[in-house]
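User: Some background: our group keeps a shared notebook of sequences we're curious about, and every so often someone picks one and asks for a predicted structure to add to the entry. Today it's my turn. The entry only has the sequence so far, pasted here. Could you supply the structure so I can complete it?
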Amino acid sequence: MLKVRRPKLTWADLEMSKLELTKLITHYAQSNKADNKSAKTVTWYSEMLGDYVKFLESTSRKSILAELNAETVREFILHEQSRNLSPFTVQGKVRALKAFSSWLWNEGYTPDNMLARIKVPKAPHRIVQTLKDWEIDALLKVQNPLTALGSRNIAIFITYLDTGLRLSELCDSHFDDVHIEEGYLKVMGKGSKERIVPIGASTQKVLWRYVIHFRPEPLGELNNYLFLTSDGKRLQPNAVKLLLRRWGRNAGVPRLHAHLLRHTCATNFLLHRCGDVYRLKQILGHNTLQMVDKYVHYASDEEAIRHHPSSPVDRMSIKGLRSYNLDRMLKKNSRR
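Assistant: Of course. Here's the predicted structure to add to the notebook entry:
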């Protein structure tokens, strides 16, 4: 039987424009894994890029590399915006496409970065309110610190507020990496980057109470995490999400969720001058100061609300306003 010989193809012989996007997205995912990106990040990129493929198919286009261009991407942006998606969701999809385009260029699939000039759509800047003191008090009041469950939940809550850990980082904290007496945690963050996160006296106190009196024996070495279920297993992220949701409803703070606690920690770190943005960047595990910059704005907004700065008009000597005698006029009108 004769064997059919395949021609000796070279990279230059490949018709790049006809390559299937789904295969390239798979290759991109493998590349991200090789770059040590977290499984969650790899999945996120694949899902965002998958939405672009679905868009192409819905408009009777072929899902090939030739259809990844500035004109079609702009059409995709308008399509996604017309679906009334969150501006931040649309931003995420565009960022994923731009990152994918850069990768295609660097890998030699395209002669240039096709989406380099595509701008990420603007999203509204909203003031995200941190947890207020009365909300924190209300949340603590519905937990009993003298029970195993209450002690653990309070320890989780205070640790969040003091360290700003990500949800996955909190659940993945190994018991051997928790140095309560020395006042710090060793945390494995995104990209397998380990960092030191300090904890204060209050956090040390609640962690000691939980660890000494209420933390169960872990169910085997594989479950030797700081926070455990009542039967000694690792506390899963979804379980913490559900816990916070129920806890918030019971305490009259329904907006409670894990990222709000991280946000509250970061904002208060700057608001109470616990350190500068470089220190905050290290504690939160961000790669760039750009990621921390939003907390600078939040802290500034919060400070403006809390301290009620003097009104410029109140400080100005405007004689015309004094001549109005508004209070006297209002009193006279109310008598009529």
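Suggested note for the entry: Strands lie at 178-179, 184-188, 194-198. Residues 133-307 form a domain with the hpI Integrase; Chain A fold (CATH 1.10.443.10).
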